[in-house]
Amino acid sequence: MEIRGVDFVVHYVPNLEEAVSFYRDTLGLKLELHNPDWNWAEFSLPPITLVLFGTYPGAPLTNGKGGTGLALAVDDIDDAVQELSRNGVDVEWGPNELSTCQVAMITDPGGNPIFLHKRKDGSWG
Questions:
Q1: Contact 102/59 with Cβ under 8 angstroms?
Q2: Res 65 pLDDT > 70
């Protein structure tokens, strides 16, 4: 078997509609697919897809702090933090300057961690 890469990342959320609004309207991500019947939404973040999967009784995983987090590459950490703060998003941590990057952390409405990240070498992915 040869693993070719990551096709999509799944973020479990307690309220799909609230999460779709946050990721689309607050973070400005492009919504590609939204199917409430499946409790599923997809956002295009080439080269992968971000999936929001609404939790339900008996779901194999649940949302919240811990587990996986999402790191979104941004052009300017300070601008991103200021914009999100103006839109009522609390910054949980940072922004911080590390040896290879700048990073801050927010959470989505379900408590899932989202890192805002900028590598000093300008690369991403």
A1: no
A2: no
Calpha distance 68→112 (Å, rounded): 8
Dist. CA 11–CA 22, nearest whole Å: 13
Report the C-alpha gap between 22 and 24 in whole angstroms. 6
Give me 69's structure tokens. Answer: 């987090």
Name which residue leads in pLDDT, 84 or 14: 84
Task: List strand residue ranges (DSSP E) for the chain, in order.
Answer: 8-13, 30-35, 40-45, 48-54, 70-73, 91-97, 101-107, 113-119
pTM: 0.78
Nearest to 48 by CA among 25, 81, 71, 26: 71
Return the closest-CA partner of residue 12 out of 52, 69, 56, 59.
52
Tokens of 108: 């989505």
> Exposure pattern of 7-17 as b/e (b: 16+ CB <10 Å)?
eeeebbbbebe
